Amino acid sequence: MTSADQSTPTQPPARRARRADAERNRAAIIEAAGVVFAEQGCAVDVREIARRSGVGMGTLYRHFPTKDDLLATVMEREFTSWLTAAHQAAAATEDPWEALTGFFEQALTNQAHNRALVETYTATGAPAHQCARRRDAFIDELRIRCVDAGLLRDGVTTADLVLLSTSLSQTVQATDDSHPGQWRRLLRISLDGLSSRNAEPLPDADAGT
Protein backbone atom coordinates (compact mmCIF):
# COMPACT_ATOMS: atom_id res chain seq x y z
CA MET A 1 0.00 0.00 0.00
CA THR A 2 1.42 3.38 -0.97
CA SER A 3 1.54 6.41 1.30
CA ALA A 4 -1.18 7.95 -0.87
CA ASP A 5 -3.43 4.98 -0.11
CA GLN A 6 -2.88 5.50 3.63
CA SER A 7 -3.74 9.23 3.59
CA THR A 8 -6.96 10.54 5.10
CA PRO A 9 -9.81 10.54 2.57
CA THR A 10 -10.82 13.94 1.32
CA GLN A 11 -14.21 15.31 2.21
CA PRO A 12 -16.91 13.98 -0.16
CA PRO A 13 -17.92 16.47 -2.88
CA ALA A 14 -21.53 16.51 -1.69
CA ARG A 15 -20.50 17.48 1.84
CA ARG A 16 -18.16 20.19 0.55
CA ALA A 17 -20.99 21.56 -1.59
CA ARG A 18 -23.37 21.63 1.37
CA ARG A 19 -20.82 23.43 3.51
CA ALA A 20 -20.17 25.98 0.74
CA ASP A 21 -23.93 26.54 0.40
CA ALA A 22 -24.22 27.04 4.16
CA GLU A 23 -21.38 29.58 4.15
CA ARG A 24 -22.94 31.48 1.25
CA ASN A 25 -26.31 31.52 3.02
CA ARG A 26 -24.77 32.81 6.23
CA ALA A 27 -22.90 35.54 4.36
CA ALA A 28 -26.07 36.53 2.48
CA ILE A 29 -28.04 36.75 5.73
CA ILE A 30 -25.42 38.93 7.41
CA GLU A 31 -25.13 41.19 4.37
CA ALA A 32 -28.89 41.65 4.07
CA ALA A 33 -29.28 42.12 7.82
CA GLY A 34 -26.65 44.87 7.80
CA VAL A 35 -28.64 46.82 5.23
CA VAL A 36 -32.05 46.23 6.83
CA PHE A 37 -30.92 47.01 10.39
CA ALA A 38 -29.28 50.22 9.17
CA GLU A 39 -32.44 51.28 7.35
CA GLN A 40 -35.13 50.25 9.82
CA GLY A 41 -33.47 49.75 13.20
CA CYS A 42 -33.48 46.91 15.69
CA ALA A 43 -37.25 46.37 15.63
CA VAL A 44 -37.28 45.11 12.03
CA ASP A 45 -39.08 41.82 11.33
CA VAL A 46 -36.54 39.09 10.54
CA ARG A 47 -38.81 37.91 7.74
CA GLU A 48 -37.71 40.98 5.82
CA ILE A 49 -34.09 39.98 6.34
CA ALA A 50 -34.80 36.45 5.12
CA ARG A 51 -36.59 37.82 2.06
CA ARG A 52 -33.78 40.14 1.10
CA SER A 53 -31.12 37.50 1.65
CA GLY A 54 -33.02 34.97 -0.48
CA VAL A 55 -33.20 32.24 2.17
CA GLY A 56 -36.06 30.62 4.03
CA MET A 57 -36.84 31.27 7.67
CA GLY A 58 -35.61 27.80 8.60
CA THR A 59 -32.22 28.54 7.09
CA LEU A 60 -32.02 31.88 8.86
CA TYR A 61 -32.82 30.34 12.23
CA ARG A 62 -30.30 27.53 11.73
CA HIS A 63 -27.58 30.13 11.49
CA PHE A 64 -29.03 32.61 13.98
CA PRO A 65 -31.50 31.12 16.49
CA THR A 66 -32.61 34.58 17.67
CA LYS A 67 -32.70 38.07 16.21
CA ASP A 68 -30.39 39.20 19.00
CA ASP A 69 -27.77 36.69 17.80
CA LEU A 70 -27.97 38.12 14.30
CA LEU A 71 -27.96 41.72 15.52
CA ALA A 72 -24.86 41.11 17.66
CA THR A 73 -23.02 39.56 14.71
CA VAL A 74 -23.93 42.41 12.40
CA MET A 75 -23.08 45.12 14.93
CA GLU A 76 -19.67 43.58 15.61
CA ARG A 77 -18.97 43.43 11.88
CA GLU A 78 -20.05 47.06 11.44
CA PHE A 79 -17.93 48.15 14.39
CA THR A 80 -14.83 46.29 13.20
CA SER A 81 -15.17 47.75 9.71
CA TRP A 82 -15.58 51.27 11.09
CA LEU A 83 -12.70 51.00 13.58
CA THR A 84 -10.36 49.65 10.91
CA ALA A 85 -11.20 52.60 8.67
CA ALA A 86 -10.78 55.00 11.61
CA HIS A 87 -7.31 53.63 12.39
CA GLN A 88 -6.29 53.97 8.76
CA ALA A 89 -7.58 57.54 8.55
CA ALA A 90 -5.81 58.56 11.76
CA ALA A 91 -2.54 56.97 10.65
CA ALA A 92 -2.72 58.92 7.40
CA THR A 93 -3.34 62.24 9.20
CA GLU A 94 -0.23 64.02 10.43
CA ASP A 95 -2.03 66.70 12.44
CA PRO A 96 -3.14 65.22 15.81
CA TRP A 97 -6.09 67.60 16.13
CA GLU A 98 -7.36 66.72 12.67
CA ALA A 99 -7.02 63.03 13.57
CA LEU A 100 -9.13 63.53 16.71
CA THR A 101 -11.81 65.64 15.03
CA GLY A 102 -11.82 63.26 12.07
CA PHE A 103 -12.52 60.39 14.43
CA PHE A 104 -15.63 62.09 15.81
CA GLU A 105 -16.81 63.10 12.34
CA GLN A 106 -16.37 59.60 10.98
CA ALA A 107 -17.95 57.87 13.98
CA LEU A 108 -21.04 60.07 14.05
CA THR A 109 -21.50 60.10 10.30
CA ASN A 110 -21.43 56.30 10.38
CA GLN A 111 -24.02 56.24 13.14
CA ALA A 112 -26.22 58.78 11.37
CA HIS A 113 -26.57 56.27 8.53
CA ASN A 114 -27.24 53.26 10.76
CA ARG A 115 -30.36 53.31 12.93
CA ALA A 116 -29.65 49.99 14.64
CA LEU A 117 -26.14 51.07 15.59
CA VAL A 118 -27.37 54.18 17.36
CA GLU A 119 -30.29 52.34 18.97
CA THR A 120 -27.94 49.67 20.29
CA TYR A 121 -25.49 52.19 21.72
CA THR A 122 -28.31 54.23 23.25
CA ALA A 123 -29.84 51.15 24.90
CA THR A 124 -26.58 49.78 26.30
CA GLY A 125 -24.47 52.94 26.62
CA ALA A 126 -21.67 51.41 24.53
CA PRO A 127 -20.78 48.75 22.00
CA ALA A 128 -20.17 45.19 23.20
CA HIS A 129 -17.48 44.98 25.88
CA GLN A 130 -14.62 43.82 23.63
CA CYS A 131 -15.54 46.41 21.00
CA ALA A 132 -15.75 49.16 23.61
CA ARG A 133 -12.27 48.34 24.91
CA ARG A 134 -10.82 48.60 21.41
CA ARG A 135 -12.62 51.89 20.81
CA ASP A 136 -11.49 53.35 24.13
CA ALA A 137 -7.87 52.34 23.49
CA PHE A 138 -8.00 54.08 20.12
CA ILE A 139 -9.51 57.23 21.63
CA ASP A 140 -6.71 57.20 24.22
CA GLU A 141 -4.12 57.08 21.42
CA LEU A 142 -5.73 60.09 19.76
CA ARG A 143 -5.87 61.97 23.07
CA ILE A 144 -2.20 61.33 23.80
CA ARG A 145 -1.22 62.59 20.33
CA CYS A 146 -3.09 65.83 21.00
CA VAL A 147 -1.64 66.21 24.50
CA ASP A 148 1.92 65.70 23.22
CA ALA A 149 1.31 68.36 20.58
CA GLY A 150 -0.09 70.81 23.16
CA LEU A 151 -3.46 70.94 21.40
CA LEU A 152 -5.80 69.49 24.03
CA ARG A 153 -7.21 71.38 26.98
CA ASP A 154 -5.59 70.53 30.31
CA GLY A 155 -7.45 67.92 32.31
CA VAL A 156 -9.36 66.30 29.43
CA THR A 157 -9.34 62.53 29.95
CA THR A 158 -10.04 59.56 27.74
CA ALA A 159 -13.20 58.99 29.77
CA ASP A 160 -14.32 62.53 28.88
CA LEU A 161 -13.89 61.82 25.17
CA VAL A 162 -15.67 58.47 25.39
CA LEU A 163 -18.60 60.11 27.19
CA LEU A 164 -18.69 62.90 24.61
CA SER A 165 -18.86 60.33 21.83
CA THR A 166 -21.71 58.53 23.60
CA SER A 167 -23.61 61.77 24.23
CA LEU A 168 -23.33 62.86 20.62
CA SER A 169 -24.48 59.41 19.51
CA GLN A 170 -27.70 59.98 21.43
CA THR A 171 -28.02 63.40 19.77
CA VAL A 172 -27.80 61.70 16.38
CA GLN A 173 -30.81 59.55 17.29
CA ALA A 174 -32.79 62.29 19.05
CA THR A 175 -32.54 64.73 16.13
CA ASP A 176 -32.55 62.24 13.25
CA ASP A 177 -36.03 63.14 11.97
CA SER A 178 -36.42 66.79 12.99
CA HIS A 179 -32.89 68.22 12.65
CA PRO A 180 -30.58 65.58 11.14
CA GLY A 181 -27.59 67.96 11.01
CA GLN A 182 -27.86 69.17 14.60
CA TRP A 183 -25.15 66.81 15.82
CA ARG A 184 -22.62 68.54 13.57
CA ARG A 185 -23.27 71.87 15.33
CA LEU A 186 -22.93 70.29 18.76
CA LEU A 187 -19.76 68.48 17.69
CA ARG A 188 -18.16 71.78 16.63
CA ILE A 189 -19.17 73.43 19.90
CA SER A 190 -17.77 70.48 21.86
CA LEU A 191 -14.51 70.38 19.93
CA ASP A 192 -14.00 74.08 20.56
CA GLY A 193 -14.32 73.37 24.27
CA LEU A 194 -11.63 70.68 24.02
CA SER A 195 -9.07 73.01 22.48
CA SER A 196 -6.01 74.08 24.47
CA ARG A 197 -7.03 77.67 23.75
CA ASN A 198 -9.36 77.27 26.73
CA ALA A 199 -7.18 77.62 29.82
CA GLU A 200 -9.92 77.70 32.48
CA PRO A 201 -9.62 74.65 34.74
CA LEU A 202 -12.25 71.98 34.22
CA PRO A 203 -14.64 71.05 37.06
CA ASP A 204 -13.83 67.91 39.03
CA ALA A 205 -15.66 65.01 37.39
CA ASP A 206 -16.58 63.61 40.82
CA ALA A 207 -17.67 66.90 42.35
CA GLY A 208 -21.28 67.23 43.46
CA THR A 209 -23.67 69.99 42.51
TrEMBL record:
Q: Which SUPFAM superfamilies does the entry mention? A: Homeodomain-like, Tetracyclin repressor-like, C-terminal domain
Highest rank taxon of the organism: Bacteria
| Gene3D superfamilies in the record | Tetracycline Repressor, domain 2
Extract the InterPro entries matched here: Homeodomain-like_sf, HTH-type_TetR-like_transc_reg, HTH_TetR, Tet_transcr_reg_TetR-rel_C_sf, TetR_SbtR-like_C
Q: Which residues bind DNA?
A: 45-64
Ranges where the record places region Disordered: 1-22
Q: Which UniProt keywords apply?
A: DNA-binding, Transcription, Transcription regulation
Tell me where in this chain the HTH tetR-type domain is found: 23-82
Q: What is this protein called?
A: AcrR family transcriptional regulator
PANTHER family recorded for this chain?
Answer: HTH-TYPE TRANSCRIPTIONAL REGULATOR BETI (PTHR30055:SF234), HTH-TYPE TRANSCRIPTIONAL REGULATOR RUTR (PTHR30055)
Species this chain originates from: Streptomyces rapamycinicus
